[in-house]
Amino acid sequence: MKKMAIMSLFLFLLIIPLAACGQQKEEEVKKIRLAEVTRSIFYAPQYVALAKGFFKEEGLDIELTTTWGGDKTMTTLLSGGADIALVGSETSIYVYSQGTNDPVINFAQLTQTDGTFLVSRHKIDNFSWDQLKGSTFLGQRKGGMPQMVGEFVLKKHGIDPHKDLNLIQNVDFANIANAFASGTGDFVQLFEPTASIFEREGKGYIVASFGTESGHVPYTTYMAKQSFIHKNKDAVEKFTRAIYKAQQWVESHSAAEVAKVIHPYFKDTDLSIIEKVVDRYKSQGTYATNPILDEKEWNNLQNIMDEAGELPKHIDHKTLVDNSFAEKAMAK
Predict the structure, then answer these.
(1) DSSP H helical segments within the chain, as ranges?
(2) Domains 30-113+217-331 and 116-214 share a fold
């Protein structure tokens, strides 16, 4: 009995430090509330980071919320409803221009081109941009990045969107595809996977890429309030490192492999469509291969905004961009 009592005491003493160790490890896990502007294959590396456990490897527990719209996403971030937001960089410029003591800082880039495509109602074998003149063009919401890029590209090809087209841009984002499918417009600017689905169903035909035409821009980036970054530098660095791992994984794997990994986040979309979309985005360099947001991209973004008459004022790259976390992530 005495021997059994000693053994029991030994096991009890052994369990205490193991339990404490487990509790310590649990406490080390940092919860990050992440708000994404929409759910899109456009953000494939993010879902790879989640599915492959790259955030968990860094000791981060990601609570992902889809906030459906740039304004709503930024409101969620500014009000403290999220720690980090995935949204267009132009939103950080709008916030800063309104005056703030706690600016929103871009610290990691996810996509580096526009994600929309020009879709024609009829098949065109030899497309040229001047074929849009005199047509009815169903564009995106005024002031949004897709519309600004759309106008920038049209002007680049000598088309005045407000004089040479019957431009429709008062249709709500969620209803643009349905409006086109119902017969509105000769051309429409669409995101994937809708563009590819329309092509498969014979409702429209992709004739050009706005992303290819507009060049590299910080289209969607991870950002957080300056105060959050200062208080959570270690977590921001870990978050950025997980994203970089995912960017490298997407770059080094086939569209089919990427599609299979992210499919759980798009259960209502056919796997073959996801693969096609990923392949299209990969081939045109939409997915950034590292989290760096360089000055050239930043200035191109502001040129596009200025061309559309939506730039409140020019903001220096160093004011709203912090590449230090991306540089550290890449160094390791």
Answers:
(1) 2-28, 44-51, 54-57, 70-78, 90-97, 145-156, 176-181, 194-201, 210-214, 226-231, 233-252, 255-262, 271-283, 295-307, 317-320, 324-331
(2) yes
User: What is the dihedral sign for C-alpha 230, 235, 241, 247?
Assistant: negative
- Chain centre distance of CA 207: 23
User: Which CATH number is associated with domain 30-113+217-331?
Assistant: 3.40.190.10
Query: What's the one-letter identity of residue 135?
Result: S
Residue 297 phi, psi dihedral angles, 5° rounding = -65, -45
Condensed to tens digits (0 to 9), the pLDDT of residues 203-254 reads: 999 999 999 999 999 999 999 999 999 999 999 999 999 999 999 999 999 9
Residue 138 is encoded by which pair of tokens? 């169903």
Question: Pick from 193, 113, 194, 195: which is nearest to 153 by CA?
Answer: 113
Domain boundaries, the chain: 30-113+217-331, 116-214
Give pTM, 2 decimals.
0.90
* CATH class for the region spanning 116-214: alpha beta
